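User: My collaborator and I are trying to settle a disagreement about how two of our proteins should look. Neither of us wants to argue from intuition anymore, so we agreed to look at predicted structures for both before our next call. Could you fold the first one, then the second, and keep them clearly separated?

Assistant: That sounds like a sensible way to settle it. I'll keep them separate. The first protein:
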Amino acid sequence: MTPTPRSNSRGGSSGASKKARSQGAGGKGAGAKGAAKPARSAAPKSRAFGRERFGQSLGPVKNNPPERNSVKRAAAQDVHDPDGIRLQKLMAQAGVASRRVCEEMIAEGRVEVDGQIVTELGLRVDPKTAAVSVDGIRLQLKENMIYLVFNKPKGVVSTMDDPEGRKNISDFLKNKYANERLFHVGRLDQATEGLLLLTNDGELANRLTHPKYEVPKTYLVQTKGPMESGISNQLKRGVELEDGVTKVDSFKLVDSTPGHVLVEVVLHSGKNRIVRRLFDAVGYPVERLVRLQVGPIRLGDQKQGTIRVLGNQEVGHLLASVGL
């Protein structure tokens, strides 16, 4: 698999802007005296979570709030809490940006508190009860919440403890998480590798696995080749299994070598061993299976057997994907 390149966190226009300044009034190539000066382009907006290592290429926030779609927005309410924390300080503590940049974001109307856009710099909020979003990204303000990504190797069972003594998730957790009650979001069978989310956020874990939120999951499948034409359409139309018809959302041939093909499929079903059963049903048993992505969270080039902490931006996108 080709590692996903990380996007550059710094703007790439510095060279162009220097060149533009060198050609301005007074420089070679300047227009006639009195000619109108070119208008300055607006300064780019400061990016939230710009210093984070992970999650810089997640794209626009995709909100998925099924139970809220039919509910009209309530009338504007006073979100100020005189005993709370200043909003810009709270944002800075959550890793959005420096306090000064957070003040600019508030003034630009990019911050919401409890669903309302706020522009007052003196606003105070209660971090225990307020829902704060920046550019649509929900901030997780509870300091005790844990969000991890585990790249599960083959042969590891998706449990925190195994009575048979097989290698399990807890064997890879560092000591600082030993006393935490972590949920693994969904399961990967013992032979399947790849992305497994771990968290102590029970509501998030519950929503990510609930079928009504239709959280997409991306898998890389190795099977025998060459593959007959029509298999892709068959999987996208739907295959009758013992527990009903299931289909993939997308199907893409990634690579082929003599006797084997590599296919990327996306589906939102969370049924047990669903990818293996689908490929068995169309006559192409899975030889190797890796989960690459759950919702907006990607495995990228994370090494197998390692665990990393999700960035704040990743957490915000994950919460938005299930309407939190």
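The second protein, kept apart from the first:
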Amino acid sequence: MIYDVIVVGSGFSAIAVTCNLIEQLPASAKVAVVGDDPGFGRGTAYRTELYLHRLNVPAGRMSLLPHHPDDFVDWLKSHGGQLQAGDFASRGDYGLYVRNTLARLLRKREGRCRVDFIKAKAAGCVERYTSTLAFHLGNGDEIAGRNVVLCLGVGNANLPVDPAGAPPFLRSRIVENPWRLSWLRRVAPSDAVCILGSGLTMIDQVLALRAHGHRGRIDVLSRRGLAPLGHARTPPAPLPIDVHALPATISGLLKILREKSREVADWRSVMDGLRPVTQALWQRLTNEERARFLRHALPWWNIHRHRVAPEVFAGFEKLVSDGTVRFHAGFLRSLEAREGRLVADYRIRAKREIAEIKADWLVNCTGMERAGISHSPLLKEMNRFHLIVPDPLGLGIQVDAASEVTGTSRISPARLFAVGALTAGQFWEITAVPDIRVQAKAVAEEIVRARLKSNA
């Protein structure tokens, strides 16, 4: 079958694009959504049921559709929640909201486009019939589309060392995917836990351990030993920032931002002032400056920009202050089993000295891998046929300002878009809901506009 639009993926980006298409396309249009994730639309982040796992963005900025800004807060209230726009909802509730929003749109059968959900993995893509892109599916079928939107997310980053050759005992105590929360039931209350990585995922797993009765020591090892900071309970007003008045070099930018942070009562006002202009600022940087940012400034950007809910931060800080959670800055060198325990050897940052952490469990919280091509067999196949082009910094694939894939040697007039993490090379700040929902709406509008023009 030939579809007007094929949406490839099953995470938040896919559901955001699909909802916008349902709202905008006429009844004569046909949409296929291809993905094999049973938790369609919830993804890794919003599948958790643990109430302690909170959103890192206030509820008032988390509505799925940007033109209905109060939708999520209204949904929470209609389901018995007492949260206000400035509060931080649970991730589990947000996952339910996203699924319910899609279901509500699908229930409006009269006048809406046809939507087929195909539970299969897209294994390959080719140009077909001179006017479409066709996908080979893992179930043996093939579908084709005049417009395609790639909404492929990213997976967990691999461990810094390969545990494949480790003895069975050691491998059984390594948690490579911490979001499969069944591992928590196997942890004894007094077990020592070593967590690799010190970002948002680390905080989530520390709180999950405590909620499951763990009271043992937790050692956190990361390259710089930095942890995310917290949102203010009373957020300061964002500082207006003229992006065109800022220098286009990382060193110049950091100097200006440090000066502005010293001039205001709360540095958060500077970071929140940057939020609406971050994409424009990124697009002013050369590839050399972007690479310099990734090498030198990214860890500090992450802890200041991607903050945690105030109550979550307060609980975590208490565990740090009482010594339950200890931070180590260094580079993991090896893992081995000694005397019935797991031992992580690491080189201390800025030193040649080697230290070790003894633990009963090792948990991989090194975050999500960058949205490059190598993590996806489909993207590797599309790259091989020159249907997509890698971003030069490994930040996904090349797209233009309208999120349309560029630089390919395709001959078909079929249009290919990408939404979400795959477009970080063009937009940088494109992994959080407030940014993705705007991008998803814009891509849907462009597809509808072009369809109307071609049918005129």
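Some points you might bring to the call about the second protein. Residues 7 and 262 are 46 Å apart (CA to CA). Residues 433-455 form the longest helix (23 residues).
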